[in-house]
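We emphasize that the prediction below concerns an isolated chain of 264 residues; any contacts that depend on oligomerization or on bound cofactors are therefore not represented. The input was used exactly as deposited, without trimming of termini.
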Amino acid sequence: MQFDASQLRSSGAHAEWTTSTPTWAYALADIGPWILAVVAGIALARALLQTRRYRALAVFDATRQSATHAALIAAEARTTGEIVPVVLERSDRYPGANWLSALVALILGTLLLAPHLPWGAPYELLCWQLGMAAVGFLLALVVPGWKRMFIGEARASEMAEEQAINEFHRLGLSQTSARTGVLLFVSLLERRVVVLGDAGIHAKVGDAHWDTTRSAIIDGVRKGCVDEGLIDGIRLCGAVLEQHFPWEHGDRNELPDRIVVRRE
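Result of the prediction step, given as a token string:
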């Protein structure tokens, strides 16, 4: 017995079904990239507006340095202790932040320009994506506020503390005869203040005093007045150094009365 295949296919009940994509999904696909563009634009504008606060000579110019230096001389005139304020633009170059910014720019740019990218031309597509990554890399390289978005808080604290310790030893604060060196350290990119006191003065005042001093400096920095914060810190440290290590006739200044301001 033979079957007619054409008759078999046309007989019986049959139906088809399709899955429909929700309307909101199409809307999201249309406006999603623009939302990302607006967010990225706002973030970049904010980073550009904040550039000044990450420049040491912008927030701590010659006039403010002079006022801080005068406060330092006055404080050290009454004690054998040594105080050195340090203001750095950054404690590390954070090369990883540059590459992370490049990756984000590549992904974001691909999403925004997806309908216009040459998906059928691999080499041309690669050039477009490399260009997007280069833009992200350069932004992190030249705009501190943009780079700061790609630096974790734990990493920022770690690098600022490490740099502060390096400065403490590099500037000779660990080599005073009575171990009375004090470092007031401000790192702008990390938004961190570190106060370190050597063993001699630390044994007299403990952690509570350094916490109070750090808070006083932070208050000034938050107001955009690095000089006021450092002057308050110098006065607090000068007072306890005078109390426990007062200046006496014949005492010598073991370290120059100076303020250190540099990029890194």
